[in-house]
Amino acid sequence: QVQLVESGGGLVQAGGSLRLSCVASVRSFSQYAMGWFRQAPGKEREFVAAINWSGGSTYADSVKDRFIISRDNIKNTVYLQMYRMKPEDTAVYYCAASIIGDGEYRYWGQGTQVTVSS
Question: How far apart are CA 58 and CA 32, in angstroms?
């Protein structure tokens, strides 16, 4: 089965930076598109960023000028580098995987907490 494990969350002051990592236990990591989502208390889960097998990426408007998603297909890892963080970035961040050609993110990690103080 596919397992995703996030790490790198923590507490940071507004304007600071964090890098999240997600390690995937899959046989062929390059066959999966990877995404980052987040969910704040009392709010719905929202899309943050995604990256395809070749490195093409897309971002939510709220983070597109501040966050960078990347992947290492040798280490089976996807990263989310976050700069100039804001209190509204506070949430549990989840990584997710979708098989290339499929329309859904079928595999999810446990999440990692990110808290930004003002």
Answer: 15
